Amino acid sequence: MCGIVGIFGNLRKEDLERSINKMSATLIHRGPDDSGTWVNEESGIAFGHQRLSIVDLSSVGHQPMISPCGKFSVIFNGEIYNHLQLREKLNNSKYKQSWRGHSDTETLVSAFSQWGIEKTLNQLVGMFAIAVWNIKTKKLYLIRDRFGEKPLYYGWSNGIFLFGSELKALRSYKGFNNEIDRSSLSLYMQYMYVPSPCSIFKDIYKLDPGCIL
């Protein structure tokens, strides 16, 4: 279990850094082994990651991770069960990959480099919540596994786009001003949970399983 967070909007670098560090710190219980942030001031985006080291315990599995082609910045929560088979497939392709470590995150970003996002996702077997920023096209992708095993919330607050593994990370943003959604509260009282894609807050949603935003 790891924790991922992100913020995207018209903010200064120091505000991005302060906000992403605060948001990421709320998820330390999900990943106490390591933490990292990535800030792109030009595009107004920042990623944060709290890591629980399982597949590769070394520092080369540190996130956020940049793809070998330099095109993608990636944060990832979950496990890719077939990542060794994907590595073998990458090694047998016309592109020669020089591996730094043994993490499934490195396999993931290398696959993004060589096959693109959708072709890679079609080959993944595992559980995951992934955020990808395309540095060249300046597009953000949020991705959730087919069964929805890894949570991912997203939405707008005070003109800023936020996402994260838990609602508490979004709430920790200093500009968060979203009210309780009365319709969601009614659903909670009826079912004892808030059905997807709603959340308890207005303008904040759960990404549905098997979806790319």
Description:
With 213 residues, the protein is α+β, with helices and mostly antiparallel strands. It has helices at 13-25, 83-91, 104-115, 117-121, 167-171, 182-191, and strands at 3-8, 34-40, 45-51, 65-66, 72-80, 126-134, 139-144, 153-157, 160-164, 204-206. Helices cover 25% and strands 28% of the residues. The strands form 2 sheets. The chain has a 6-stranded antiparallel β-sheet. The longest helix has 13 residues, at 13-25.
Describe the secondary-structure layout.
Layout: E1 3-8, H1 13-25, E2 34-40, E3 45-51, E4 65-66, E5 72-80, H2 83-91, H3 104-115, H4 117-121, E6 126-134, E7 139-144, E8 153-157, E9 160-164, H5 167-171, H6 182-191, E10 204-206
Antiparallel strand pairs: 1-3, 1-9, 2-3, 4-5, 5-6, 6-7, 8-9, 8-10
Helix pairs in contact: 2-3
For the largest beta-sheet, the strand count, sense and barrel status come to:
6 strands, antiparallel
Number of helices, counting only DSSP H or I runs of 4 residues or more: 6
What would you call the shape? globular
Instruction: Report the end-to-end length measured between terminal Cα atoms.
Output: 22 Å
SSE order, as H and E?
EHEEEEHHHEEEEHHE
Query: Which class of secondary structure composition applies to the elements?
Result: alpha+beta
Number of strands: 10
- Which regions contain 5 or more consecutive residues with pLDDT less than 50? none
Averaged pLDDT: 94
| Strand order across the largest sheet | 2-3-1-9-8-10
What's the Cα radius of gyration? 17 Å
Percent of residues in helices comes to 25-40%
